[in-house]
Specification:
The complex is a heterodimer. Chain A is an alpha+beta fold. Chain A is built from 13 helices and 22 strands. Chain A has a nine-stranded mixed β-sheet with strand order 5-4-6-7-1-8-13-12-11, with helices on both faces. Chain A has a five-stranded antiparallel β-sheet with strand order 20-19-18-21-22. Chain A has a three-stranded mixed β-sheet with strand order 3-2-14. In chain A, α2 crosses α3 (about 80-85). The longest helix of chain A has 15 residues, at about 105-120. Chain B has a single domain (about 10-115, about 210-400), classed as 3-Layer(aba) Sandwich (Peroxisomal Thiolase, Chain A, domain 1), CATH 3.40.47. The chains are: A alpha+beta, B alpha/beta.
Chain lengths: ~475, ~400
């Protein structure tokens, strides 16, 4: 039977305390903090980050599809999932699909993946859900929304979490919405959404799934319930008949409301502490509700080395500048740069050279065994070995999954950009090979020759309405 | 076996414009100024020029030269080799005379950057896979890495390292303020240098040279013809170019504390000129101090200082104008300025003036002499590119009898 084979998650390094927002606008701000994606992160890069965590120790070429869910896709037309899938090194034959436009899109992607595996049409499907919804300055959503992602791998073999039952209600109750022309989410009067929507519809779905599975509330170890607000979240859980100890923390105080990613991130957190045999109920909300009952197997004990939610919560830096956040989100008009804009990225060159850009392939010389990158403005495919001089005797060699040490670096204040200074570092990879990359999620004072770094997939440039993605490096923090 | 250029060609005339932010002058104005200074210095007419080599990083075709000078249908080759552009134009001009093809040729370098509206250089922006280079990279970033690793490898604290490279810029300002054609002619104290804003950590504002407008020119002929033209022609002793395979960012063997192409070009030049102990035999040098740290490692790469020990020589004043081996006598790229396509010929110009005892022709009134005593051999060095990969020129000029 199909089920979850692996899980992973990602929470951005920076956390903005709600008190910092409160100080800016003169309000209380509220409790806790929210996770804030860096200036060079988006749902594609966060999907890759969660995907990397999920695929730890798993050959990405054995994954046959990426279902990527987000309501904040960088492209309306151009498959977001395929950019992420290529960065994750899924095979070209992968049947990738974008799931979007609804906060339940992540759960819908999970259900579709389960169906595809159960039907036997796909062996292994990776699902990612990532969001970074933008709240307008000084509004409630700015305080509430946080950024993050989660990933699940579905398959038939070594299933760690089985599905026991599923119940969906679709309902076009529009308590919030965002058209293509809207930057920010719009809301109808909140009492309408709460009284006719959130407090009723998920409860109906839960009732449906429990009846279908012939289960009672007491049979559920943990409830992973979506929710925009801690108070109503607790009220709904209570109304549905669950005790406080059954409720998995919805991460609202530590991460914020991560939209499409929220139910999946809560489920990852639940699985991190789950015991074999536990039943877990996941309940989504957004133009309807899905209630899914999962059952944990012994295999869960073999996939506990993920960073998941727990470790990512610890890997953090407090962002004490609201101005820096506004700048990252392009919510403020900046002084024009003193340098001319860079030339447009070439779609043709990026397509031709995508093996180096997206999955970060270099080459390994079959004659002398030297791994090597070649990243020049004219080409990224080596022909002559830099060590032995052999011509065209290379096999592909991936660097994205290698760690390395800093051989040299500089903090560049001249380059400008959204978050100066730009830190550039030359990285010597474990196992051989070297490359120069930008370094992110770093404190300038911690940079030294010799520190350990890992690779992270990020946005590099934006020209002619297109993003150029590439890998950067960041200090290893666990 | 490669042949040697030693004493096979002579410089009989040179010219160099004032470098700087030449809001007043076009590229054509600068070319005419430098060329006619050189004609006059050599005592020739434009019609005597049989062929020319033009160095420029920005113009295209030899017509950049023939048009303002109204040169009539002679062969002109445009040369580009980044910051080694002018030196390579000079090198090719010298080879044509040594080969016996021409008697009198012109080498001229020019660049005019200050109409661009920005400080420093732009991004280039050539098409290609835009992820391939770290996007929006800047020259200071690439050279700052030399400082980062040099300090780390040789155990210099940030303060010691900053002082060492700051002392290099201090010296350039000491020399530049005496020179009436230099871009920057202001004395700057160590405190100002050390406290200047960071450009690319650990390089601050005064660790970086400016970008300038300017042109420089040389008239080259055979030693035999030169004797009839003037009493003090200067001979070319060595001309070497070494092109790195640009693998420093990919090859773990590169240590980011030296520039291998400088070592290679330097050793080849010493061999060509018959020099065994450059620290003792070279009288003076103009090297590529695009950034202060570049000058520091170049002193080691050219064997002026032992490896890892340049700090001692810098701090003791060994490379000062009154030191044993003066370096950047005219202020260097830091203060004389850096119009990329002209810089190599500007360096040779300073060696030429010093060897002829004419350095005070450019003395700012009221300053002590900038002429050094009895120089015999002068070395010039350009670095086009960045430490991980660059075009290096090392040339040596000297008195005919040396």
């Amino acid at each position: 039977m199909a089920g979850i084979v692996s899980y992973g998650a990602y929470i951005p390094y920076y956390r903005l305390p709600r008190s910092v927002i409160g100080n800016m606008w003169g309000g209380r701000g509220g409790r806790g903090e929210k996770a804030v994606a860096g200036f060079d992160e988006d749902p594609i890069t966060m999907s890759v980050a969660a995907g990397l965590d999920c695929l730890k120790g798993i050959d990405p070429k054995t994954v046959h599809a990426l279902y990527m869910a987000t309501t904040c896709a960088p492209y309306k037309e151009r498959q977001n999932a395929t950019i992420a899938a290529t960065a994750l090194d899924l095979p070209r034959e992968a049947r990738n699909t974008d799931f979007s436009n609804c906060l339940r899109a992540g759960v819908s992607a999970m259900q579709a993946a389960l169906d595809a595996v159960n039907a036997g049409s796909l062996d292994r499907v990776l699902v990612t859900a990532a969001d970074m919804r933008l709240g307008g300055a000084a509004g409630g959503d700015e305080l509430a929304f946080g950024d993050g992602s989660a990933a699940f791998l579905f398959g038939n073999d070594k299933v760690a979490v089985e599905i026991e039952g599923s119940y969906t209600l679709s309902d076009d109750l529009a308590d919030y919405w965002r058209s293509y022309d809207d930057t920010f989410v719009r809301h109808w009067e909140d009492r309408f959404g709460r009284e006719q929507g959130y407090m009723k519809i998920p409860a109906e779905a839960v009732e449906g799934v429990l009846e279908k599975c012939d289960l009672e509330q007491k049979d559920i170890a943990k409830v992973c319930l979506s929710g925009a607000n801690a108070r109503t979240h607790a009220a709904l859980a209570k109304k549905m008949g669950f005790g406080q100890e059954q409720i998995q923390d919805p991460l609202l105080e530590s991460v914020g409301n991560t939209g499409t990613a929220q139910p999946l991130m809560i489920l990852v957190a639940a699985l991190e502490d789950a015991n074999p045999g536990d039943r877990i109920l996941m309940v989504s909300w957004g133009n309807g509700s899905d209630a899914n009952v999962f059952r944990v197997t012994d295999e869960i004990l073999n996939i506990r080395d993920r960073r998941g939610i727990k470790r990512h919560l610890e890997i953090k830096k407090t962002l004490d500048s609201y101005g820096r956040y506004l700048r990252w989100r392009e919510m403020i008009s900046l002084a024009p740069p003193a340098r001319p804009p860079a030339g447009a990225a070439s779609m043709a060159a990026q397509w031709r050279e995508h093996a180096s850009a997206l999955p970060l392939y270099g080459a390994k010389c079959q004659n002398c065994g030297t791994p090597q990158l070649y990243l020049s403005q004219s080409s990224t495919r080596p022909h002559v070995c830099l060590e032995c001089g052999a011509r065209d005797q290379f096999e592909p060699y991936r660097f994205a999954d290698k760690v390395g040490k800093v051989a040299s670096f500089s903090h560049d204040f001249l380059a400008g950009g959204v978050d100066p200074p730009t830190t550039a570092a030359v990285i010597d990879f474990e196992g051989g090979g070297r490359g120069q990359f930008n370094m992110v999620d770093r404190e300038t004072e911690e940079c030294e020759v010799g520190i350990g770094v890992e690779m992270t997939f990020r946005k590099l440039r934006y020209t002619l309405g297109a993003h150029t993605y590439f890998w950067k490096c960041k200090p290893i923090r666990d | 076996m490669p042949g040697s250029i030693k004493d096979r060609v002579a410089i009989v005339g040179m010219g160099c414009t004032k470098f700087g932010e030449r809001w007043d002058a076009s590229a054509a104005d600068l070319i005419v100024d430098a060329a006619y200074q050189a004609y006059e210095d050599a005592g020739i007419e434009p019609k005597d020029i049989q062929a020319a080599w033009l160095g420029t990083a920005t113009g295209s075709t030899g017509m950049v030269l023939s048009e303002p000078l109204r040169l009539q249908y002679i062969p002109i080759t445009r040369v580009e080799n980044a910051c080694a552009t002018a030196s390579d134009a000079f090198r090719n001009a010298c080879y044509s005379v040594a080969a016996g093809i021409y008697d009198i040729v012109l080498a001229l370098g020019i660049d005019k950057f200050k109409d661009s509206g920005i400080s420093g250089l732009g991004d280039g922006g050539s098409p290609g896979p835009s992820h391939a280079m770290v996007a929006e990279s800047t020259p200071p970033r690439q050279f700052a890495m030399l400082a980062t690793t040099y300090f780390s490898r040789y155990g210099l604290s940030f303060e010691e390292g900053k002082h060492m490279i700051g002392r290099i810029s201090w010296k350039s300002h000491q020399n530049g303020m005496r020179n009436k054609n230099a871009h920057f002619q202001r004395e700057v104290n160590m405190e100002t240098i050390l406290n200047a804003p960071m450009v690319s950590w650990p390089l601050g504002l005064f660790d970086c040279c400016g970008v300038s407008d300017g042109a420089a020119a040389a008239i080259i002929t055979t030693p035999e013809i030169a004797k009839g033209m003037r009493k003090d022609p200067i001979h070319v002793k060595a001309l070497q170019i070494a092109m790195a395979p640009r693998d420093g960012n990919f090859n773990t063997k590169y240590d980011f504390t030296h520039v291998e192409a400088t070592v290679r070009a330097g050793e080849a030049a010493y061999k060509e000129a018959g020099i065994t102990n450059p620290r003792e035999e070279i009288s003076m040098a103009e090297v590529h101090d695009c950034f202060s740290i570049t000058e520091a490692v170049t002193m080691e790469d050219l064997r002026f200082s032992p490896k890892g020990k340049v700090q001692e020589d810098i701090e003791s004043g060994f490379f000062d104008l009154d030191g044993k081996l003066p370096v950047q006598l005219d202020g260097g790229l830091k203060c004389f300025g850096h119009p990329i396509g002209a810089s190599g010929l500007r360096m040779i110009y300073e060696m030429y003036l010093q060897l002829q005892g004419r350095a005070d022709e450019l003395l700012n009134p009221g300053f002590p002499s900038r002429q050094i005593g009895n120089p015999k051999l002068g070395l010039t060095h350009n670095l086009g590119g960045s430490p991980d990969g660059c075009a290096i020129f090392v040339g040596i000029v000297g008195l005919p009898e040396v």
